[in-house]
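User: Quick sanity check before I run a bigger batch. Here is a single chain. Can you write out its predicted 3D structure?
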Amino acid sequence: MLNELNDFLSYSLHCANLPDQHQRRADRQFSPFSLTINGHTQVDCEVLGVITFTPVVKRKLQKHIVLSCGVHGNETAPMEICNQMIADIANEHLMVNHPVMFMFGNLPAIAKQTRFIDENLNRLFAAELDGEGDERVRARELMSEMARFFKHADDTDCGSKHHYDLHTAIRASKNEKFAVYPFTHGQAYNKQELQFMSDCGVNTILLSQGPTTTFSYYSSRYHDALSFTVELGKVKRFGENDMKKFEQVSTMLRHLIQDEVLALTPYSECPLQIFKVNQVIKKYQDDFKLHFSDDTANFTDFKKGSVLASETGRQYVAEHEGEAIVFPNADVAIGQRAMLTVIPYEL
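Assistant: Done. Predicted structure follows.
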């Protein structure tokens, strides 16, 4: 099985046997496996598209790290980053000193290189999720695997728990790499994590102001993990990504897995731009429309009073001078978030 780790994503897609959206969950070719890499790293794959590496030698203050990608199937750069790290671990080019779980989220959507098949997977991470659609089944599967992994962290009294859900955005951004810090329910923001984000080249942080059903909020709320949704650039197809643009984040993730202690830039020297979410604008009518062009970049700011979107019975305007838009998407399902607006914030 070690050879399959040279391209774990292709192996997972092959086992999934999902050539199109009409082929349902046919993972009958997949069998869970475990192995060791030269006696120093335990490898476990219990669920298709999810693999865990654990150092055989246990240290007292090990981090437990989850790197998820492919929650949206057309966001390819994070998948290529994770796939290469898995291959490098298998070939002993990257040593694992902290338990790390890699998750490739929506395999059918990845196979079709589309955002999702039936439902947006990143709106389904809820503790009590019902329904039997494929994406709902997969959400429960991923949550169960994460719970098992972090339970091991709790049982072994590890140093800390981390989850970075890696994405790329639908449209271009004035701030190319940015991260969403999930709502903390009053807990202090972790400045060391902000230092880590900055050293990854992610210098724009959005502070979420309420609960959501995203994967990073789920891990933060229910597993007390230090979590971020990390946006690394713009959506591109496999083979079209300029991987040089991701060298900084890839290098830091590798340090996170390998180094016993991370050397980070002091917080006072981090060039961070911090915003807080001001409005969560949802779509309630079929005629919902945005009042700016499709090529308007994330973090474009507007004058106070500017109309940002409208639908029957509602009009959405900028409430502050310089209020900026993030994640605008008029094509979401009724009741889902169509846009965030953000304003500058100082910690």
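The longest strand covers residues 160-169.

User: Great, the batch can go ahead then.
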